[in-house]
C-alpha cells in the first residue's frame, strides 16, 4: 500500500521547468532514494512534499490526504512530515535536549523521558543532552537532527543529503545507523542524494532524475543491472558499453557471444556490462596469437590508485560485431592484482549483458 502518491507534479521558476510532470509512489515503511545530478529538480521535489513550496500543478497525497493539489497546499507544520537537512539545522541557542524536544509540547506528560528516549534511540549518551550543538561532532549533530524529526512521530521522513558534509568513513557508518533506526521505527523515508552508491545501498526503491523528470524508477538491483539507457547506466556506476548484434537472447560483440537479459533483436545495438562482470587471467602474446577461441587483450595503460587500478585494455583478437569493433575499453580492478602496462590477459565475462535502447 502506498503511503505517498505524487502525480503530475510540476514546478517552474520563470522559464525554467524544475519539475515537469513527476509521478512517484512510495510504499509504507520503505526507503526511496531520489538521485540525480545537481540542478535536476530533486531538492525541489522534496521541498514540495515537505510543504516549503507550492506546486504549479499536480497532486501530493499522504495516507490518502491531499497535501497539495494544483495551487492549493496544506501548511508544512500540518503535514506530519519530518525533515533532516544537509547541515542538521540545529538551533545554536538551544541545548541538545531543547533541540530534540523542540516539537514536543511543553505540557506533554513525561516530556523529559521522551527526549531521553529519543536521544538513546539515535545513540546519544544522556550526558550530551546538556551540551550545545557546537560542542558535538558532525555525526552527532546529524543524530540530534534525526531525533528532533522523529520526536513529531512523522508519517514520512525526508532526508535532504544529510550525510554529504561528513567524511567518507563516517558517511557510511551514519547511513547504516539511520537506515536501521528508520526501519525499526517503521517510518517511510525519502532520501535525496547525488551519491549513487549511497542511493543504491540505502533504498528499497531508487528514482533517477534527469531534467525535471524521472528517467527510471525501480529496485537498486534492477536500475544497476538493467538501466533504460546509457545515461542512467553511466550515472549509477562505471560502465562498459559495446556495439553488438543482438538476436535470440544473445549479443555478438567484440568480447564474443554473450547471453543477454532481454531477448531484444537489433542489427545494430549497444550492450552494457559492469566492470565486476569482467575477469582477467595472465596470458602471453603467443597464447593470444595461437588461440582460436577466447578473448585476449593487452594492457596499454595502467593507473594505480591504491585500493584500485584503472586499466585500458586493447582487444587483440576481437569477435567482430558488424565490423564495429571497439579497439579498447577501460576497466577498474583491485589494486593488488599486480597487472601492469604491457601485460597480456585473457578476458572472460560472467553474468548477462544488458541491451540498451
UniProtKB/TrEMBL annotation:
A molecular function (GO) held by this record is: ATP binding
- Statement: the UniProt record of this protein carries the keyword S-adenosyl-L-methionine: no
The cross-references to CDD domains, in alphabetical order and at most eight, read: ABC_Carb_Solutes_like
Q: Which UniProt keywords apply?
A: ATP-binding, Cell membrane, Ion transport, Iron, Iron transport, Membrane, Nucleotide-binding, Transport
Task: Show where the ABC transporter domain sits.
Answer: 4-236
Q: Does the keyword Lipid biosynthesis apply?
A: no
Matching entries from PANTHER family are given as: SPERMIDINE/PUTRESCINE IMPORT ATP-BINDING PROTEIN POTA, SPERMIDINE_PUTRESCINE IMPORT ATP-BINDING PROTEIN POTA
Which family is annotated? Belongs to the ABC transporter superfamily.
Q: What is this protein called?
A: ABC transporter ATP-binding protein
Q: Which species is the source of this protein?
A: Mesorhizobium liriopis
The organism's lineage is: Bacteria, Pseudomonadati, Pseudomonadota, Alphaproteobacteria, Hyphomicrobiales
Amino acid at each position: 500500500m502506498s503511503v505517498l502518491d505524487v502525480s503530475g507534479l510540476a514546478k517552474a521558476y520563470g522559464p525554467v521547468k524544475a519539475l515537469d510532470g513527476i509521478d512517484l509512489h512510495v510504499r509504507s515503511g520503505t526507503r526511496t532514494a531520489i538521485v540525480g545530478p545537481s540542478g535536476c529538480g530533486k531538492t525541489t521535489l522534496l521541498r514540495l512534499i515537505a510543504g516549503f513550496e507550492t506546486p504549479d500543478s499536480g497532486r501530493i497525497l499522504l495516507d490518502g490526504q491531499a497535501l497539495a493539489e494544483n495551487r492549493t497546499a496544506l501548511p508544512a507544520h500540518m503535514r506530519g512530515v519530518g525533515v533532516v537537512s544537509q547541515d542538521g539545522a540545529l538551533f545554536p541557542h538551544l541545548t541538545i535536549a531543547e533541540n530534540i524536544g523542540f516539537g514536543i509540547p511543553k505540557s506533554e506528560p513525561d516530556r523529559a523521558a521522551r527526549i531521553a528516549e529519543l536521544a538513546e534511540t539515535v545513540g546519544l549518551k544522556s550526558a550530551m543532552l546538556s551540551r550545545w550543538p557546537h560542542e558535538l561532532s558532525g555525526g552527532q549533530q546529524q543524530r540530534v537532527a534525526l531525533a528532533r524529526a522523529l520526536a513529531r512521530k512523522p508519517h514520512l521522513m525526508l532526508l535532504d543529503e544529510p550525510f554529504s558534509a561528513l567524511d567518507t568513513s563516517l558517511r557510511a557508518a551514519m547511513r547504516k545507523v539511520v537506515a536501521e533506526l528508520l526501519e525499526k521505527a517503521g517510518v517511510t523515508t525519502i532520501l535525496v542524494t547525488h551519491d549513487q552508491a549511497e542511493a543504491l545501498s540505502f533504498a528499497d526503491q531508487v528514482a533517477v532524475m534527469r531534467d525535471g523528470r524521472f528517467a527510471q524508477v525501480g529496485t537498486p538491483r534492477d536500475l544497476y543491472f538493467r538501466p533504460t539507457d546509457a545515461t542512467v547506466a553511466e550515472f549509477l556506476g562505471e560502465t562498459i558499453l559495446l556495439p553488438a548484434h543482438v538476436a535470440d537472447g544473445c549479443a555478438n560483440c567484440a568480447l564474443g557471444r554473450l547471453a543477454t537479459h532481454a531477448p531484444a533483436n537489433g542489427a545494430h545495438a549497444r550492450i552494457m556490462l559492469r566492470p565486476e562482470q569482467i575477469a582477467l587471467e595472465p596470458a602471453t602474446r603467443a597464447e593470444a596469437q595461437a588461440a582460436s577461441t577466447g578473448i585476449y587483450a593487452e594492457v596499454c595503460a595502467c593507473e594505480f590508485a591504491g585500493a584500485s587500478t584503472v586499466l585500458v585494455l586493447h582487444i587483440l583478437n576481437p569477435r567482430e560485431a558488424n565490423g564495429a569493433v571497439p579497439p579498447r575499453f577501460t576497466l577498474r580492478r583491485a589494486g593488488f592484482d599486480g597487472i601492469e602496462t604491457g601485460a597480456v590477459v585473457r578476458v572472460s565475462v560472467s553474468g548477462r549483458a544488458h541491451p540498451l535502447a
